Amino acid sequence: GENVEQHPSTLSVQEGDSAVIKCTYSDSASNYFPWYKQELGKRPQLIIDIRSNVGEKKDQRIAVTLNKTAKHFSLHITETQPEDSAVYFCAAIGDTGFQKLVFGTGTRLLVSP
Amino acid sequence: GAVVSQHPSRVICKSGTSVKIECRSLDFQATTMFWYRQFPKKSLMLMATSNEGSKATYEQGVEKDKFLINHASLTLSTLTVTSAHPEDSSFYICSAGRPAARYQETQYFGPGTRLLVL
Predict the structure, then answer these.
(1) Residue A82 φ/ψ, nearest 5 degrees
(2) In chain A, whose CA is at the least distance from the CA of B98?
(3) pLDDT in tens, A48-95
(4) Alpha-carbon distances of B90 from A6, A50, A103, B20, rounded to whole Å
(5) B52-90, pLDDT tens digit by residue?
(6) B114 touching A, CB under 8 A?
(7) Most CB contacts within 10 A, which of B37, B42, B58, B77?
Protein backbone atom coordinates (compact mmCIF):
# COMPACT_ATOMS: atom_id res chain seq x y z
CA GLY A 1 0.00 0.00 0.00
CA GLU A 2 0.86 3.66 -0.15
CA ASN A 3 3.38 5.12 2.31
CA VAL A 4 3.91 8.86 2.68
CA GLU A 5 6.90 10.40 4.44
CA GLN A 6 7.04 14.06 5.38
CA HIS A 7 9.90 16.33 6.39
CA PRO A 8 10.72 18.28 8.43
CA SER A 9 8.65 17.48 11.50
CA THR A 10 9.06 21.04 12.76
CA LEU A 11 9.95 24.21 10.95
CA SER A 12 10.56 27.62 12.46
CA VAL A 13 10.84 30.69 10.25
CA GLN A 14 10.74 34.44 10.64
CA GLU A 15 7.79 36.36 9.31
CA GLY A 16 8.31 37.14 5.66
CA ASP A 17 10.57 34.16 5.02
CA SER A 18 9.63 31.22 2.82
CA ALA A 19 8.81 27.77 4.12
CA VAL A 20 9.14 24.49 2.25
CA ILE A 21 7.74 21.14 3.34
CA LYS A 22 8.58 17.99 1.43
CA CYS A 23 6.83 14.66 1.06
CA THR A 24 7.67 11.43 -0.69
CA TYR A 25 5.31 8.65 -1.62
CA SER A 26 5.80 5.03 -2.53
CA ASP A 27 2.97 4.08 -4.88
CA SER A 28 3.74 5.15 -8.43
CA ALA A 29 0.02 4.83 -9.23
CA SER A 30 -0.88 7.67 -6.85
CA ASN A 31 -2.33 10.59 -8.74
CA TYR A 32 -3.81 13.03 -6.25
CA PHE A 33 -1.84 14.95 -3.63
CA PRO A 34 -3.63 17.34 -1.26
CA TRP A 35 -2.15 19.49 1.48
CA TYR A 36 -4.07 20.20 4.66
CA LYS A 37 -3.54 22.82 7.35
CA GLN A 38 -4.66 21.97 10.85
CA GLU A 39 -4.78 24.42 13.72
CA LEU A 40 -4.81 23.14 17.28
CA GLY A 41 -8.05 21.33 18.05
CA LYS A 42 -9.55 22.13 14.66
CA ARG A 43 -10.38 20.18 11.54
CA PRO A 44 -7.85 19.79 8.70
CA GLN A 45 -8.48 22.40 6.04
CA LEU A 46 -7.58 21.74 2.41
CA ILE A 47 -5.25 24.51 1.29
CA ILE A 48 -4.09 23.26 -2.09
CA ASP A 49 -3.98 20.07 -4.09
CA ILE A 50 -2.35 18.81 -7.23
CA ARG A 51 -3.09 16.03 -9.64
CA SER A 52 -0.52 13.99 -11.45
CA ASN A 53 -1.12 15.57 -14.83
CA VAL A 54 0.55 18.83 -13.75
CA GLY A 55 3.90 19.60 -12.19
CA GLU A 56 3.10 22.78 -10.33
CA LYS A 57 0.12 24.67 -8.98
CA LYS A 58 0.03 28.04 -7.31
CA ASP A 59 -2.56 29.90 -5.26
CA GLN A 60 -1.38 33.30 -4.04
CA ARG A 61 1.36 32.65 -1.45
CA ILE A 62 1.03 28.90 -1.63
CA ALA A 63 2.41 26.59 -4.28
CA VAL A 64 2.81 22.87 -4.68
CA THR A 65 5.26 21.09 -6.96
CA LEU A 66 5.14 17.47 -8.01
CA ASN A 67 7.93 15.29 -9.37
CA LYS A 68 6.36 12.02 -10.42
CA THR A 69 9.62 10.47 -11.50
CA ALA A 70 11.16 10.97 -8.09
CA LYS A 71 7.81 10.43 -6.33
CA HIS A 72 7.96 13.53 -4.24
CA PHE A 73 5.93 16.69 -3.85
CA SER A 74 6.49 19.87 -1.91
CA LEU A 75 4.53 22.71 -0.37
CA HIS A 76 5.97 26.20 -0.69
CA ILE A 77 4.71 29.12 1.36
CA THR A 78 6.13 32.53 0.56
CA GLU A 79 6.00 35.69 2.64
CA THR A 80 4.98 33.72 5.71
CA GLN A 81 2.78 35.33 8.32
CA PRO A 82 2.17 34.41 11.97
CA GLU A 83 -1.28 33.11 11.04
CA ASP A 84 0.41 30.50 8.85
CA SER A 85 1.55 28.81 12.06
CA ALA A 86 -0.14 25.41 12.19
CA VAL A 87 0.47 21.75 11.45
CA TYR A 88 0.59 20.90 7.77
CA PHE A 89 -0.15 17.43 6.43
CA CYS A 90 0.53 16.11 2.98
CA ALA A 91 -1.43 13.15 1.65
CA ALA A 92 -1.63 10.90 -1.35
CA ILE A 93 -4.37 8.86 -2.93
CA GLY A 94 -3.88 5.94 -5.25
CA ASP A 95 -6.84 5.91 -7.59
CA THR A 96 -9.45 8.31 -8.83
CA GLY A 97 -12.81 8.38 -7.18
CA PHE A 98 -13.32 7.61 -3.54
CA GLN A 99 -10.12 6.05 -2.42
CA LYS A 100 -8.54 6.50 0.94
CA LEU A 101 -6.03 9.22 1.69
CA VAL A 102 -2.71 8.27 3.22
CA PHE A 103 -1.33 11.10 5.33
CA GLY A 104 2.20 12.15 6.06
CA THR A 105 3.31 12.57 9.66
CA GLY A 106 2.81 16.32 9.69
CA THR A 107 5.01 19.41 9.92
CA ARG A 108 4.59 21.91 12.71
CA LEU A 109 5.27 25.34 11.23
CA LEU A 110 5.98 28.23 13.55
CA VAL A 111 6.22 31.70 12.07
CA SER A 112 7.71 34.21 14.46
CA PRO A 113 6.88 37.92 14.15
CA GLY B 1 -17.10 24.33 -0.47
CA ALA B 2 -18.76 21.31 1.06
CA VAL B 3 -19.78 21.38 4.72
CA VAL B 4 -19.36 18.42 7.01
CA SER B 5 -20.57 18.53 10.60
CA GLN B 6 -19.94 16.28 13.57
CA HIS B 7 -21.78 15.83 16.81
CA PRO B 8 -20.93 15.97 19.62
CA SER B 9 -17.84 18.15 19.52
CA ARG B 10 -16.62 16.67 22.77
CA VAL B 11 -17.81 13.95 25.10
CA ILE B 12 -16.70 12.63 28.44
CA CYS B 13 -17.90 9.21 29.46
CA LYS B 14 -17.25 6.51 32.01
CA SER B 15 -15.30 3.41 31.16
CA GLY B 16 -17.57 0.66 29.84
CA THR B 17 -20.17 2.89 28.26
CA SER B 18 -20.80 3.33 24.54
CA VAL B 19 -20.52 6.60 22.69
CA LYS B 20 -22.08 7.47 19.33
CA ILE B 21 -20.57 10.12 17.07
CA GLU B 22 -22.48 11.49 14.11
CA CYS B 23 -21.03 12.79 10.87
CA ARG B 24 -23.27 14.68 8.47
CA SER B 25 -22.77 16.16 5.04
CA LEU B 26 -24.89 19.28 5.16
CA ASP B 27 -25.10 20.48 1.59
CA PHE B 28 -24.27 17.43 -0.46
CA GLN B 29 -24.82 13.69 -0.59
CA ALA B 30 -21.90 11.49 0.35
CA THR B 31 -21.93 7.86 -0.67
CA THR B 32 -18.61 7.38 1.07
CA MET B 33 -17.36 8.81 4.33
CA PHE B 34 -14.13 8.15 6.16
CA TRP B 35 -13.42 7.92 9.87
CA TYR B 36 -10.05 8.92 11.28
CA ARG B 37 -8.48 8.89 14.67
CA GLN B 38 -5.86 11.39 15.73
CA PHE B 39 -3.70 11.24 18.83
CA PRO B 40 -2.14 14.43 20.23
CA LYS B 41 0.58 15.79 17.98
CA LYS B 42 0.17 12.87 15.61
CA SER B 43 -1.11 12.37 12.11
CA LEU B 44 -4.55 11.22 11.05
CA MET B 45 -4.98 7.47 11.06
CA LEU B 46 -7.72 6.07 8.86
CA MET B 47 -9.94 3.70 10.81
CA ALA B 48 -12.55 2.74 8.25
CA THR B 49 -14.36 3.63 5.08
CA SER B 50 -18.09 4.01 5.50
CA ASN B 51 -20.22 3.11 2.50
CA GLU B 52 -23.87 4.08 2.27
CA GLY B 53 -26.09 1.02 2.35
CA SER B 54 -23.33 -1.50 2.90
CA LYS B 55 -20.82 -2.65 5.47
CA ALA B 56 -17.90 -0.47 6.37
CA THR B 57 -14.39 -1.41 5.34
CA TYR B 58 -12.02 -1.40 8.29
CA GLU B 59 -8.29 -0.80 8.22
CA GLN B 60 -5.96 -3.44 9.50
CA GLY B 61 -5.79 -3.47 13.27
CA VAL B 62 -9.10 -1.68 13.81
CA GLU B 63 -11.65 -3.80 15.67
CA LYS B 64 -14.95 -3.66 13.84
CA ASP B 65 -16.87 -4.89 16.89
CA LYS B 66 -15.31 -2.13 18.93
CA PHE B 67 -15.91 0.67 16.47
CA LEU B 68 -19.33 0.19 14.90
CA ILE B 69 -20.00 2.19 11.77
CA ASN B 70 -23.40 2.74 10.22
CA HIS B 71 -24.03 4.72 7.03
CA ALA B 72 -27.79 4.57 6.76
CA SER B 73 -28.32 7.56 4.51
CA LEU B 74 -26.46 9.64 1.97
CA THR B 75 -25.88 12.40 4.51
CA LEU B 76 -25.23 10.57 7.76
CA SER B 77 -22.62 8.17 9.05
CA THR B 78 -22.26 7.20 12.69
CA LEU B 79 -19.36 5.79 14.64
CA THR B 80 -20.14 4.03 17.91
CA VAL B 81 -17.31 3.31 20.30
CA THR B 82 -18.57 0.34 22.27
CA SER B 83 -17.51 -0.41 25.83
CA ALA B 84 -15.15 2.52 25.80
CA HIS B 85 -11.93 2.42 27.77
CA PRO B 86 -9.41 5.15 28.60
CA GLU B 87 -7.18 4.06 25.71
CA ASP B 88 -10.03 4.95 23.34
CA SER B 89 -9.68 8.58 24.32
CA SER B 90 -8.76 10.46 21.19
CA PHE B 91 -9.83 12.97 18.56
CA TYR B 92 -12.15 11.34 16.02
CA ILE B 93 -12.65 13.05 12.67
CA CYS B 94 -14.80 12.14 9.71
CA SER B 95 -14.47 13.24 6.11
CA ALA B 96 -16.56 13.04 2.96
CA GLY B 97 -16.13 13.67 -0.71
CA ARG B 98 -18.63 14.94 -3.22
CA PRO B 99 -19.51 12.24 -5.76
CA ALA B 100 -21.05 14.73 -8.12
CA ALA B 101 -18.06 17.05 -8.09
CA ARG B 102 -15.64 17.28 -10.96
CA TYR B 103 -12.86 16.07 -8.71
CA GLN B 104 -14.20 13.37 -6.49
CA GLU B 105 -10.97 12.85 -4.60
CA THR B 106 -11.26 16.06 -2.62
CA GLN B 107 -12.27 15.28 0.92
CA TYR B 108 -13.83 17.68 3.38
CA PHE B 109 -13.37 17.13 7.07
CA GLY B 110 -15.76 17.47 9.94
CA PRO B 111 -14.74 19.52 12.99
CA GLY B 112 -13.88 16.43 14.99
CA THR B 113 -15.08 14.92 18.25
CA ARG B 114 -12.85 14.82 21.28
CA LEU B 115 -13.58 11.74 23.36
CA LEU B 116 -12.35 11.39 26.91
CA VAL B 117 -13.01 8.12 28.68
CA LEU B 118 -12.57 8.19 32.44
Answers:
(1) -55, -35
(2) A98
(3) 999 888 899 999 999 999 999 999 999 999 999 999 999 999 999 865
(4) 23, 30, 18, 14
(5) 888 899 999 999 999 999 988 889 999 999 999 999 999
(6) yes
(7) B77
